[in-house]
Amino acid sequence: MKKILIDTDCGVDDAVAIMIALASSELNVLGLTTVNGNVGVEQVTENVLRLLPSLGRGDIPVFRGASRPLIGQPHHAEGVHGRNGLGDVELDDAGKPLEDTGAPEGMLRLARENPGLSLIALGPLTNVAIALNLYPELEELIGEIVSMGGAIGKGNVTPYAEFNYYADPESVQVVLESKVPLTVVPWDAAVKMTHSEEEICALGFGDSKAGKLLLDMHRPLFSYIEKVYGNRAAMFPDPLTMAYVVNPNIATQVLAGDLTMELADTPRRGASVHRQGNRLELVMEIDKAGFQSILLRIRNLT
Ligand code: RIB
Ligand code: CA
User: Fold this and answer.
1) Which of 170, 191, 196, 223 could form a disulfide with 233 if both were Cys (CB 3.0 to 4.6 A apart)?
2) What does DSSP say about strands 272-286 and 251-261: parallel, antiparallel, or unpaired?
3) Which residue segments constitute the domains of the chain, with CATH numbers given?
């Protein structure tokens, strides 16, 4: 069983990724840390504090993290994730308390208690960078970082940059310069695997609570994409990343290499340029059937 800590900017696809993790017996979710991204960190934190109890996992500790990137202004994506980040689905407030230490301290506590844990980063890497800077021992304690982010081909925020890495490119550079083994699932893998609303409905979630939540949360996203691109089809970057964590064998194309982040204040800021090297692995493609079978596990969540 793989012990994981999830760092999230809980938007709609993060929520599905979290559901996949909770529904997978291969994973033991030790805790969640929240970070500014799809929406502000207060809203992200509220989303996680409500999502976990709604899935029967109010026992998992939640630590609030960074409200803004290392450099520059916070970026959000309400147009994609809705005003509240969950497609404007209102989850019940179960009154789950927030941990009284911040995300970096939460990462340190869980890593000391569970040396070798996997850190699954579904948002900007701000918390990870701060934690590595504050607590250098984390370079030895964290077994691996699996990060959804970056784009080798076309980006999704600018033609060059993907949202998570665009929102805080300096934090990506800090992680790249660390020694922690790193796997990146870039936007390129998500773009290769779109699902129409009909496809999702036909997958067979039945009347499961989690299946209904997935569809309800993604309705504004489908509408946004329909408005921009003319068809109700979506990408699922964070769920893809979590499915890969559950079973790395669903990856059908993996590249070794390194990334150079564009940090200058130009139109290319936030671009992640792939180059030769052995710093990391890039998961460039994932098998659709393998992903769907893992995604369907969320039906079993109560
Ligand atoms: O670019 C997609 C990524 O940015 C996903 O993680 C999404 O949730 C947002 O954080
Ligand atoms: Ca995310």
Assistant:
1) 196
2) antiparallel
3) 2-300 (3.90.245.10)
